[in-house]
Amino acid sequence: MAGLPRRIIKETQRLMAEPVPGISAVPDEQNARYFHVVVAGPEGSPFEGGVFKLELFLPEEYPMSAPKVRFMTKIYHPNIDKLGRICLDILKDKWSPALQIRTVLLSIQALLSAPNPDDPLANDVAELWKVNEVEAIRNAREWTRTYAMGNI
Amino acid sequence: MNNGNAHNESDQSVLEEIEALKAILFSELDVTYSPSGRPIEFRHTLYPSTADDANQHYVCLTLVMKFPAGYPDQPPSVNLKNPRGLGDDFLANALKLCNEKCKDFSGSPVIYEIIELLRECLTNSNRPTGHCTICLFDFHPDDVFTYTPCYHHFHSHCLSRFCESMQTQWKEEDDQETANNPRGSNWKEKKTKQFTCPVCREVINVELASLKLAPPPHEVENFQEEFSKDAKFAAWRKEMDKQYHRQKTRGGIIDKDMEDSRFLVVTENTAATSPSTAETPSLTTEEIVQQSQSQPEIKAAPVQAPSTSKPVASRPDWSRPQQHNRRPVRGKWIRSSDSNGKERPVPAQNIARPSNPPNRQSSNEKHNSQPRHRAEESTLPVAERPYGTAPHPPPAARSNGTAPHPPSAAQVRPPPGFAPR
C-alpha cells in the first residue's frame, strides 16, 4: 500500500479533533484503514443507553467505494442482521465520495432512530416490528440492556 | 401598530416594494402571498455581478426574506440558502451584514438594498472558497477546478478520478452482465449510465478528457502531516477496549463463528485475507457481507462461482464463502485464486435489486423489487443532526428548484484572476 491517502489522514484528524456527539471512531494502531467505532444509542429510541461497537474498514478504492461497516455488538433491529451487517443504501449503490466516515456513522445512528421494517435484513425482527411493534421495541430494549451497556 | 389601518398600510408598502423590484430585476419573482394577498416571503437566487456573463459565475446563493406583519417598521428575516462555492465564513459574514442593513433601514424598504449588498459580497468572492468534497482539501489559487451545472465545485483532477472510477464500475457491471448472459439475452432493463454529481446526484456532463489533464490539487500534493496518536487517542482506544471486553463477557458481542455455524456455512477460507487486514480478523465477515449482499447474480452465473471455497450443502447461494480481498489495482480483480482472490466489486446494479440479502428465515422475495432504504429518502449524506430527529436531506440535497441556468456542462475553467494553466 503506497502511503495512506491524504484524505484518510484528513478525515482521521477531524474525527479525533471534532468528534461527532455520540460517536467515536478511532483508527487501529496497526492498520490506519481499520476503525474501532462506538455509537451511542440515540435518545428516544429503544437503543437509548446502549453503546454499540462497530468496525469500519476503508477499502483500497476509498473514497471512490464505500467503507465497510459492521455491528459487533448484538442489536435487535430490522435492518441489521445476526452478523451485524447493515442494510443501508449509502453503504452500497448510493455511495458517493462526497460522503465521509462521519456521515456514514451518522446515517447508521439515524437508522437506529428510524428502523425500516419494510426493507428488512433481519426478517424475523422485521416481521415482528410490523406485526407487533410494541413487542419488537420491547425486545430491542431488552437486547440493548442485556448486550450493549457500556459500563457496569 | 396593531390596528387594521397600520396593517393595511404595511401590506400596501410591501406590495409596492415587490412591484418595484419586478421592474428593477426584469424578472418574475418568487413571492409567497398570504391568503389576504400580502407578500410574506420572497426568494431570489443571486449571482456575482459579472456583466450578465453566466460563464463567469462561480458562486451563487438563494436569498430568502420573510416579512413579518408591520414590515418595514419590523425588520424582515433574512436567510441564505443553497450556497454554492461559498464557505461558512462567507455565509456568516454576509448574514451579519444583511442583518445590520435591515436594522439601518428600519422603516424603509430594504429588499433591494439586501440584494445589492449580497451581489457585492458574491462578486468579491467569485471563486469557490469551500473545499473539494472528493479530496477534502481547499481550492488553492493554483488549482484547476471545475463546477457542475448544479454549482458544486471539485478539483478537476478529483472529479476525473471519480468519473474514471464510475467508468470502471460500469465496465465491471457490463463484463459481469456478459458473463451472466453470454448469449446476450438480457431481459433486464439497462441501467442508464450517466455521471452524477457526487454531492447532489444531478446528472452532469463531463468532458473527461480535459478534466484528466488537470494536475492534482496543490494542497494534496503538499500535505505532509501524518496522523499523530496522542494521549487522547490512547485513552479512547483503551476505553473502547474496556467496553468491548465488558460486552464480550456479557455475551453481547456477535460471535461470527457461532452465527456462521447456525447458517450451516463454512467460511474458514475467508480467514486468509490480505496481510494488511490480517490484524483485523473479524473484517473477513465484512467482506462476506459485501459479497453476499450482492450475490444473487451468482445463481445465474456459474462463471462467477468461486473455486476458492468448499462448496457446502444446504446453503443458499448468497452465503457461499468466497475469498476475496481488497483490490490492489483499481478496476482489476481476479475471479478465483486461493491466494489472490479479489473482492468482487459491488456494482450498484446488483445491489439495487437484492436489498434484503442473506437471511435464513425466508427469502421474502417481494422486497427484492423495492430497494428502498430509509436513508434513500434523502438523496444525500445524512446531515449531522441531533439524536432522535427524523432524517432529512441536508441543505445541499434540498431541491435547488430555484437553481439557476448555469453553464451547459462542467468544464475546466480557471476562475477569473487564476492563472490559466
Automatic annotation (TrEMBL), chain A:
The answer to whether keyword ATP-binding applies is yes
Q: Which residues form the UBC core domain?
A: 3-149
What InterPro entries does the database record attribute to this sequence?
Answer: Ub_conjugating_enzyme, UBC, UBQ-conjugating_AS, UBQ-conjugating_enzyme/RWD
Q: Which GO terms describe its cellular component?
A: nucleus; UBC13-MMS2 complex
> What GO biological process terms does the UniProt entry carry, in alphabetical order?
DNA damage tolerance; protein K63-linked ubiquitination
What's the family?
A: Belongs to the ubiquitin-conjugating enzyme family.
**Name used for this protein in its record:** UBC core domain-containing protein
Upper lineage ranks?
Eukaryota, Metazoa, Ecdysozoa, Arthropoda, Crustacea
From TrEMBL, chain B:
Q: Name one GO molecular function term.
A: zinc ion binding
SMART domains the UniProt entry points to: RING, RWD
| PROSITE patterns the record matches | RWD, ZF_RING_2
Q: What residue spans carry the Basic and acidic residues bias annotation?
A: 363-377
Q: Residue ranges of the RWD domain? A: 16-125
Biased segments, Low complexity type: 269-287
What GO cellular-component annotations does this UniProt entry give?
A: nucleus
Native organism: Daphnia pulex
InterPro entries listed in its UniProt record? RNF25 (IPR039133), RWD_dom (IPR006575), UBQ-conjugating_enzyme/RWD (IPR016135), Znf_RING (IPR001841), Znf_RING/FYVE/PHD (IPR013083)
Q: Where is this region: Disordered?
A: 269-421
A Pfam family (short name) is zf-RING_2
Q: Which residues form the RING-type domain?
A: 132-201
Which protein is depicted? RWD domain-containing protein
Q: Which controlled-vocabulary keywords does the entry list?
A: Metal-binding, Zinc, Zinc-finger
The record's annotation in Gene3D superfamilies points to:
Ubiquitin Conjugating Enzyme, Zinc/RING finger domain, C3HC4 (zinc finger)
- Swiss-Prot/TrEMBL GO biological process terms: cellular response to stress; positive regulation of metabolic process; regulation of gene expression; regulation of protein metabolic process; rescue of stalled ribosome; ubiquitin-dependent protein catabolic process
According to the UniProt entry, which residue ranges have a biased composition of type Basic residues?
323-333
